[in-house]
């Protein structure tokens, strides 16, 4: 096990995301949609920073448990939580936010879920950490930090509000 | 490890019940979206095996399964080979060959869904068996009550009608008890068994107890060989919510529930349906969410 990012590096990465999205928005409205769990916390922190910058931004949360493609391999189905997108996504510019991108399958599921809420004009992807090893052609536009990992490694992200501590660890199998 | 079958309330512990009630909430949230369907059970087959007529429960399960993207087949028993003498066991073998993942069973005999569950790898859900159990009804009732009373413990519910022959009374009282709700039964003396629950044989006595909700059971004309009351009007005046009684219910802010379908002028007067604390239509909507949570929570033993 090794600490890949310390708390200060996590804050820097989140600020980097907020800056990039703010510049890309170019004064237009942005809807940040965080993917449970931890993507929601990253989104919330990006949201707070962007508001301070004076951006027009809204915040939503997406639970993708019902859209996963791996139920067959689980001994019990995941615990659901409510999604909360209180604004119409039709015609909006959505930025999906997640903590880690790995194979890309979570994002595929999130896109499916998002389309069931409406038809956004544009969807971008922001991730706190890109650890590589994609299995499908999905790439983030905004990246907080890139980590070099082995396919079999586990990347554990802990965030203050969800886990009571801040760290990113790479656990070698 | 998830359960394979959902057969009764008695075998669930409080934590499992709370989990199911919590899980039903995000499903209900889906109903306000323009797309109410999710792909969770895509490619799975849900078979409806109803040996007893039912429109509401069958439709509710059908909508629930379809909103989870499952394929639904209704095995129309009254017109099938069962009427030609095929045994339940042989029917199940046939169904097993169809590779259903979930089988929803209603049967007039208590214990039949459990017997089927032992014979198949599919997940079996009891949609009502004899006077034994109707666990998804109980779950939706608890969910509905929890929406108005998030802390359910200590609330009082009186279940009114033919308690003895009612699987709804049995399952719903059991789930409410497990959630800390105080339950009382009220009905004609011969139809209210002596149980661990408080017992009333008179409407006014039940009201004096101070219930937070009245749960009216449907008068099941088709199940009674010898009716226990002389006429609908008689039942209405003795155990029904009349216009006069509705006024007091309204003054005291008591909620009214009913599993449906209602008999107007028997269990309740028309005015009840316009009463703001009448939960009957919420029960129908919540039934779909509760059944989605049950379907999603089970694990068939399919390799």
Question: What would you say about this model in short?
Answer:
The complex is a heterodimer of chains A (173) and B (303). Chain A is of the alpha/beta class. Chain A has 4 helices and 8 strands, in the order E-H-E-H-E-E-H-E-E-E-H-E.
Keywords:
heterodimer, A: about 170 residues, alpha/beta, Rossmann fold, five-stranded parallel sheet, three-stranded antiparallel sheet, 8 strands, about 30% strand, globular, B: about 300 residues, 2 domains, four-stranded parallel sheet, 10 helices, 9 strands, about 40% helix
Task: Write structural notes for this entry.
- The complex is a heterodimer of chains A (173) and B (303).
- Chain A contains four helices and eight strands.
- Chain A has a single domain, classed as 3-Layer(aba) Sandwich (Rossmann fold).
- Chain A has a five-stranded parallel beta sheet with strand order 3-2-4-5-6, with helices on both faces.
- Chain A is globular, with a radius of gyration of 16 Å.
- Chain A is of the alpha/beta class.
- In chain A, helix 1 packs across helix 2 (39-52).
- The radius of gyration of chain B is 19 Å and the shape is globular.
- The longest helix of chain B is centred in the last third of the chain and has 18 residues, at 280-297.
- In chain B, helix 1 crosses helix 10.
- Chain B has two domains: 14-133 and 285-297, Rossmann fold (3-Layer(aba) Sandwich), CATH 3.40.50.1370; 135-281, 3-Layer(aba) Sandwich (Rossmann fold), CATH 3.40.50.1370.
- Chain B has helices spanning 14-30, 56-67, 88-97, 112-119, 135-148, 167-178, 203-208, 232-239, 243-252, 280-297; strands at residues 45-50, 71-75, 102-107, 123-129, 156-160, 182-186, 198-200, 213-216, 255-257.
- Chain B contains ten helices and nine strands.
- In chain B, the strands form two sheets. Chain B has a five-stranded parallel beta sheet.
- With 303 residues, chain B is α/β, with parallel strands linked by helices.
- The A-B interface holds A 63, 65-67, 71, 75-77, 79-83, 112-113, 115-118 and B 1-2, 19, 23, 25-27, 29, 33-35, 37-40, 68, 296-297, 299.
């Amino acid at each position: 096990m090794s600490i890949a990012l310390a708390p200060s590096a996590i804050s820097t990465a989140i600020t980097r995301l907020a800056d990039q999205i703010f510049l890309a928005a170019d004064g237009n409205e942005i809807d940040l949609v965080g993917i449970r769990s931890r993507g929601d916390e990253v989104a919330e922190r990006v949201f707070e920073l962007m508001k301070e910058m004076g951006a027009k931004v809204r915040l939503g949360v997406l639970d993708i448990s019902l859209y996963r493609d791996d139920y067959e391999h689980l001994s019990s189905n995941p615990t659901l939580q409510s999604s909360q997108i209180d604004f119409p996504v039709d015609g909006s510019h959505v930025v999906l936010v997640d903590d880690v991108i790995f194979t890309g399958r979570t994002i595929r599921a999130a896109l499916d879920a998002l389309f069931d809420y409406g038809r956004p004009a544009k969807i971008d992807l922001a991730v706190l950490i890109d650890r590589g090893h994609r299995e499908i052609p999905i790439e983030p536009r905004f990246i907080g930090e890139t980590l070099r990992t082995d396919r079999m490694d586990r990347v554990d992200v802990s965030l203050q509000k969800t886990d009571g501590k801040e760290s990113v660890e790479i656990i070698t199998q | 490890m998830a359960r394979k079958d959902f057969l009764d309330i008695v075998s669930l512990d409080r934590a499992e019940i709370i989990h199911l009630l919590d899980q039903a909430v995000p499903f209900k949230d889906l109903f306000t979206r323009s797309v109410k369907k999710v792909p969770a059970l895509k490619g799975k087959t849900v078979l409806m095996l109803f040996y007893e007529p039912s429109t509401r429960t069958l439709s509710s399960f059908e909508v629930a399964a379809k909103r989870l993207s499952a394929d639904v087949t209704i095995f129309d028993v009254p017109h099938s080979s069962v009427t030609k003498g095929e045994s339940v066991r042989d029917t199940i073998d046939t169904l097993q060959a169809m590779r259903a993942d979930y089988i929803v069973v209603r049967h007039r005999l208590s214990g039949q869904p459990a017997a089927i569950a032992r014979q198949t790898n599919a997940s079996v859900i009891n949609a009502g068996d004899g006077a034994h159990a109707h666990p998804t009804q109980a779950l939706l009732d608890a969910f509905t009550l929890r929406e108005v009373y998030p802390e359910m413990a200590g609330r009082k519910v009186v279940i009114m009608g033919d308690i003895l022959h009612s699987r709804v009374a049995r399952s719903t009282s059991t789930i409410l008890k497990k959630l800390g709700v105080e339950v009382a039964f009220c009905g004609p003396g011969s139809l209210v068994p002596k149980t661990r629950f408080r017992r009333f044989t008179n409407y006014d006595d039940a009201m004096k107890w101070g219930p937070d909700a009245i749960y009216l059971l449907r008068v099941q004309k088709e199940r009674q060989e010898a009716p226990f009351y002389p006429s609908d009007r008689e039942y209405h005046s003795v155990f029904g919510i009349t216009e006069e009684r509705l006024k007091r219910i309204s003054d005291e802010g008591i909620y009214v529930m009913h599993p449906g379908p209602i008999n107007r002028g028997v269990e309740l007067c028309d005015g009840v349906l316009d009463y703001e604390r009448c939960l009957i239509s919420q029960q129908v909507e919540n039934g779909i969410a509760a059944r989605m949570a049950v379907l999603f929570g089970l694990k068939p033993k399919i390799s």
